[in-house]
Amino acid sequence: MMNSNQKQGSEALAAINALFPEADIMTPAGYLSAVRKGVSGETLRTIVNAVGESEVIAKTIGNDVSILSKSYQLKRLSPIASDNLIGTLRVYVRAIMIYESVDVAKEWMNTSIPALGGEIPISLLDTHAGRELVHLTLRRIEAGEYV
């Protein structure tokens, strides 16, 4: 039987997957497909509401949080902004999958992590290299290298 955290995590993953019905953003091919299609302003708004980290997401797509809402009006974000946004979302999805909870995943994302040299994962999401470091750390956690 699923506990409430697992149910919440499962529902969050289903909601994120529903944003990209034609692609599984966790696979390389699905990720590429979603980036090429681009993220709509409405999907951006949904992601901001689901993740709840508007400042991080604004920075990820190259905006200031004060003008993020203007991006909700766009038909499509630029390819670079779409790539950065989906890449950041992939990190969140991986954390939710590992911790089986949105709240626990967000807590981890906002905690100083020794495996990242004491960095807070969320502070690394604004660059591709930072997202890769966080993603690699999550994969190592998943494999049991870190507790």
Topology:
Blueprint lengths: L3 H16 L8 H10 L3 H11 L2 H7 L7 H4 L7 H21 L2 H8 L18 H15 L5
How much is the radius of gyration in Å? Answer: 15 Å
Structural class: mainly alpha
Mean pLDDT: 88
Secondary-structure element sequence?
HHHHHHHH
Helix coverage percent: 55-70%
Low-confidence stretches: none
Main attributes?
8 helices; single chain; mainly alpha; globular
Provide structural commentary.
The mean pLDDT is about 90. The protein contains 8 helices and no strands. The protein is an all-alpha fold. Helices cover about 65% and strands about 0% of the residues.
Concise structural overview:
This protein is mostly helical and 147 residues long. The chain has eight helices and no strands.
